[in-house]
Design goal:
The chain has 251 residues and is of the alpha/beta class. The protein has a single domain, classed as Spore Coat Polysaccharide Biosynthesis Protein SpsA, Chain A, CATH 3.90.550. The protein has helices at 15-26, 50-59, 78-88, 107-115, 135-145, 157-161, 183-190, 213-220, 240-243; strands at 4-10, 34-42, 63-69, 93-96, 101-103, 125-127, 130-133, 166-170, 179-182, 224-226, 232-234. The longest helix is centred in the first third of the chain and has 12 residues, at 15-26.
Length: 251
């Protein structure tokens, strides 16, 4: 297998779930593409801080590119952070995702094989379904039951969460589910931008943040190609619209 995938995430207050995500990538099995994490984050945010999570998992063998920001002015508009991730990407494919996903242990073996065969010439945004886990169960686990000291490697995270109750299996190509694109095609079609900075539709945190730039990105790539992948699990969580203000609690 001869391909590479950059997993591009932003992380603000999601450091614990990011540890689960990185653990699931660290423990992938099979014939794997080169996997690189690109993590955009505000400095000195969270407990543990994102810097410490990246340092810890880099020490475990993950290839991680850090994109820190001073303050929240830019990072709250995810499309702008993704512009920077695209500009620094050196992988053939870039996977835009949320920082609260857990992948089945053969997820990237399977995906890599698809990218070097049936999908090798695909120029659209590639999407797949995700298993969104029960919100109350996830909240109770991370807020009350979780005994891990972070940052830490979670052993067999996909096997653990596969036993948790499911909220829904969604095929929606939503804000952070799974948006995979050929990096060269993105640069050719969009000039290397996830979204035009002058027309980015993302909502600020003052408006209870919503990532509207993702739809803009998919349209600029000419639409969506849906595929089947191995299981990817969403570690559900509290949301701004449930409380009426921007949440700044560790998740």
């Amino acid at each position: 297998m001869n391909t590479s995938i950059e997993i591009a995430v932003t992380c603000t207050w999601f450091q614990k779930r990011l540890c689960w995500m990185m653990s699931s990538v660290l423990q992938q099995k099979g014939v794997l593409p080169r996997l690189v994490f690109s993590v955009a984050y505000p400095r000195n945010n969270g407990s543990p801080e994102t810097e410490d999570v990246c340092k810890f998992f880099r020490g475990k063998g993950l290839e991680i590119r850090e994109l820190p920001y001073d303050g929240m002015e830019v990072i709250q508009f995810r499309g702008l952070a993704r512009n920077r991730q695209l500009s620094e990407c050196d992988c053939e494919w870039i996977l835009f995702s949320d920082s609260d996903m857990v992948y089945a242990e053969d997820f990237f073996d399977d995906l890599g094989r698809q990218l070097t065969s049936d999908l090798s010439a695909e120029t659209r945004c590639i999407s797949s379904s995700r298993i969104s886990l029960d919100k109350d169960h996830c909240k109770r686990f991370f807020n009350e039951l979780d005994e891990h000291t972070y940052p830490s490697v979670i052993e067999n995270p996909s096997a653990l969460v596969s036993t948790w109750p499911v909220f829904q299996i969604s095929r929606s190509c939503g804000a952070g589910y799974f948006q995979l694109a050929n990096t060269r095609c993105v640069r050719e079609k969009t000039g290397g931008l996830y979204v035009d900075e002058t027309s980015c539709n993302d909502w600020s945190w003052q408006k209870m943040q919503k990532a509207k730039s993702d739809g803009q990105f998919r349209r600029r790539l000419g639409g969506v190609k849906r595929i089947k992948t191995k299981a990817q699990y969403h570690l559900n969580h509290e949301r701004d619209n449930e409380v009426g203000y921007h949440l700044t609690l560790q998740r």
